[in-house]
Amino acid sequence: MLELQHVSKTFNPGTINEKKALSDLSLHLAPGDFVTVIGGNGAGKSTLLNAVAGVWPVDSGRILLGGEDITALPEHRRAVHIGRVFQDPMMGTAPNMQLEENLALALRRGQKRGLKWGVTKLEREDYRALLADLGLGLEDRLTAKVGLLSGGQRQAVTLLMAALRQPKLLLLDEHTAALDPATAAKVLELSDRIVSEAHLTALMITHNMSDAIRHGNRLIMMDEGHIILDIAGEAKKKLTKRELIDRFAQSAGYALETDQTLLSKD
């Protein structure tokens, strides 16, 4: 479903601030893969997601989505096929619009706009059912402004919106980092369910080692723009945090001295 072929990206080339964010990176995701991505600050995680989303062009290499070469496509044209949930719960929705209006915008993503875009009674019932499944009591707040929702509620709605049209790829960009532990756990549970039920292909960045191990069917670890670990299937299910740290040291060539060197040990 997603293939990166020898992708490289350098910021500020030829200056004192030159930073090679991705170095000849190749990655293949099969349909239905749910891949968690971990690594320290500057490892290239966010650059990877932004390259896939088309936020900026890559210097070299190719990016294919569903077999189609999207390397040269601008971000807005990729958005038809890619759903994304950001770290900040304030992003991904229109805060001054009603909950049902936000869902209607998500449902109509990629369609031609006209003058008959009101929310129909049938759509409203569908939205109510979808929100009821979240278990957050939002089904009775369809006309509430999204900006009035809590961070966890808003992130859950953003997740629902991103998956509403069953995109070819779902990008989860540290989407629980700004939430308290209990709310984060709820949003991750919803993520698992939505990805599984809709048979989506997903990439999820996280700094939490336990979450990276617990969620998804595959885990990749990045360091200095490279993928240094790729663990899937039964090997991932049996993985522990201690083993993950040891394998990082073996692959990267240096040991972790503190928790902050790589990621959270919570």
CATH architecture label name: 3-Layer(aba) Sandwich
* Radius of gyration computed on alpha carbons: 19 Å
Q: CA-to-CA gap between the ends?
A: 32 Å
* Helix run count: 9
Question: Can you tell me the CATH class?
Answer: Alpha Beta
Give the SSE layout.
Blueprint: E1 2-11, E2 19-29, E3 34-38, H1 45-53, E4 60-65, E5 68-69, H2 75-78, E6 82-85, H3 99-107, H4 121-134, H5 151-163, E7 169-173, H6 181-197, E8 202-205, H7 209-214, E9 218-223, E10 226-232, H8 233-237, H9 241-252
Parallel strand pairs: 3-8, 3-9, 6-7, 7-8
Antiparallel strand pairs: 1-2, 1-4, 4-5, 9-10
Helix pairs in contact: 3-5, 5-6
Would you give an account of this structure?
- The protein is of the alpha/beta class and 266 residues long.
- Helix content is 33%, strand content 23%.
- It contains nine helices and ten strands.
- The longest helix is centred in the last third of the chain and has 17 residues, at 181-197.
- The protein is globular.
- The model has no long low-confidence stretch (mean pLDDT 85).
Task: Please name the defining characteristics of this protein.
single chain; 266 residues; alpha/beta; Rossmann fold; six-stranded mixed β-sheet; 23% strand; globular
Summarize the structure.
With 266 residues, this protein is of the alpha/beta class. The chain is built from nine helices and ten strands.
